[in-house]
Design a protein that fits this description.
The protein has 388 residues and is an alpha+beta fold. Strands 1, 2, 7, 8, 9, 10 and 20 form a seven-stranded mixed sheet that branches. Strand 8 and strand 9 form a beta hairpin. The longest helix is centred in the C-terminal third of the chain and has 14 residues. The chain is built from 13 helices and 21 strands. Helices cover 30% and strands 25% of the residues. The chain has two domains: 240 residues, 3-Layer(bba) Sandwich (FAD/NAD(P)-binding domain), CATH 3.50.50.60; 134 residues, Elongation Factor Tu (Ef-tu), domain 3. The chain binds flavin-adenine dinucleotide. The site of flavin-adenine dinucleotide has 39 residues, from helix 1, strand 2, helix 2 and helix 13.
Length: 388
């Protein structure tokens, strides 16, 4: 029997698409090789799922075509998702910067999808790996549960980051095999590692976090940064990492809210030690170690103007050239993927293969940190769900 729609991937985008197809009375089968659905939803936002952002807009996404996501985003808004949560009695709150989190656990969102799938008679088959897809009068899928046939096929297999949560490159490989262009992928929202030389100096700062402004390739983020035993992490670094390419330099303003040179001038005749003064603005342990590493601390009155300017420049524009990222195993998202020029922005259908849809992270649309990636998964799943 031919099913109307098969969706490969029971993650955020696949589940949303399944509901929308189900609402239209389509017979829907969702396949996933994992033993449970929505594994990334479960772990997202530290288990509380940062499921959307009140400020969602095309500017929060990285893509070779920054306009592509506009259509889907305009048809599925944060209010559409919170209406679904309200319907299921799931409470949530805004943490900061428009980021919405569940009050309890992300498990509530998974229950929501389970209930909605039952309501619309959607069949979920877990532990089912798709190995091959043949288009032609619909689609024929070879799986370890036998051959399955459908009129429409939606590929919602996500990016390749966090393979232990089920991520594969299946969607990218399938698109490539069917002649669709796929941009090279790289890890995004990922910690950066120090060069060997920097690691020797800055390893001792491990565990310290502070607010900073991180700039990379024309993008600037002001949030927390965290020194790790391998390099740098924290929200501002994760954000910048999505724009970072191997060999690029990043610039960190360790004191984004003050002009430290002005502060130095106010203490020009002071006998206070530099590290002591810096501790008024930075964590004490950081000030002590930073002075030890970069500029042995003296009394402020003992520095020349030139030296103070140099110290201020180091604090406001600390330039580092990371060695690498921590890779796909630690990346929240995959940057790159299926070229949006191959897809309709209205329906997410492949222009060259009728009835074939690609949604979610497998597409070359990557959100910044803050609920934007899940929102793209919902919005693109919703868009395809109106047509598949
Ligand atoms: C640790 C972590 C935390 C995150 N936190 C947030 C957050 O708080 N907010 C936010 O917006 N985003 C967050 N993200 C990103 C977000 O989870 C993803 O962008 C989003 O889940 C992508 O949805 P998707 O449907 O495209 O893919 P996924 O949710 O990854 O779903 C893809 C599904 O396809 C299945 N699959 C893959 N290959 C096959 C195959 N060959 N056969 C069958 N099934 C297959 C997988 O098992 C998986 O279930 C986080 C990601 C990670 C890793």
């Amino acid at each position: 029997m031919k099913i109307d729609v098969i969706i490969i991937g029971a993650g955020a985008s696949g589940l949303m698409c399944a509901l929308e197809c189900g609402k239209r009375g389509r017979s829907v089968l969702v396949l996933d090789h994992s033993g449970s659905m929505g594994r990334k939803i479960r772990v997202s936002g530290g288990g509380r799922c940062n499921f959307t952002n009140l400020c969602v807009g095309a500017a929060n996404y990285l893509s070779h075509n920054p306009h592509f996501c506009k259509s889907a985003l305009s048809r599925f808004t944060p209010a559409d998702f919170t209406a679904l949560l309200d319907k299921h009695g799931i409470s949530y709150h805004e943490k900061e910067k428009g980021r919405l989190f569940c009050n309890k656990s992300s498990a509530g969102i998974l229950s929501l999808f389970r209930e909605e799938c039952t309501r619309y008679n959607i069949t979920l088959r877990l532990g089912c790996r798709v190995s091959h897809v043949m288009p032609g009068n619909g689609f024929s899928l070879s799986t370890d549960h036998g051959v399955m046939e459908s009129r429409s096929l939606v590929v919602a297999t996500g990016g390749i980051s966090y393979p232990e949560l089920g991520a594969t490159d299946f969607g990218h490989r399938l698109a490539g095999r069917l002649g669709l262009k796929v941009f090279p992928v790289r890890p995004g929202l990922v910690p950066l590692t120090f060069s060997e030389q920097d690691l020797r100096m800055f390893r001792q700062l491990s565990g310290i976090s502070l607010d900073a402004e991180v700039a990379c390739n024309g993008k600037t983020f002001t949030e927390n940064i965290l020194f790790t035993h391998r390099g740098l992490s924290g929200p501002a670094i994760l954000q910048a990492s999505s724009y970072w390419n191997r060999g690029d330099q990043i610039e960190i303003n360790l004191l984004p809210h003050f002009d430290i040179y002005e502060v130095f001038l106010g203490h020009r005749q002071s006998r206070r030690e530099l590290h002591n003064l810096l501790s008024d603005y930075l964590p004490r342990r950081f000030s002590l170690l930073w002075c030890k590493i970069m500029n042995p601390s003296r009394q402020l009155c003992c520095y020349s103007d030139r030296e103070l300017r140099k110290i201020a420049a180091l604090l406001h524009a600390w330039k580092i050239r990371p060695r690498d990222t921590e890779g796909f195993s630690r990346a929240e998202v995959t940057v790159g993927g299926i070229d949006t020029d191959e897809l309709s922005s209205k329906t997410m259908e492949a222009k060259a293969v009728a009835g074939l849809y690609f949604i979610g992270e497998v597409v070359d649309v990557t959100g910044e940190l803050g609920g934007y990636n899940l929102h793209w998964a919902w919005a693109s799943g919703y868009a395809a769900g109106q047509y598949a």
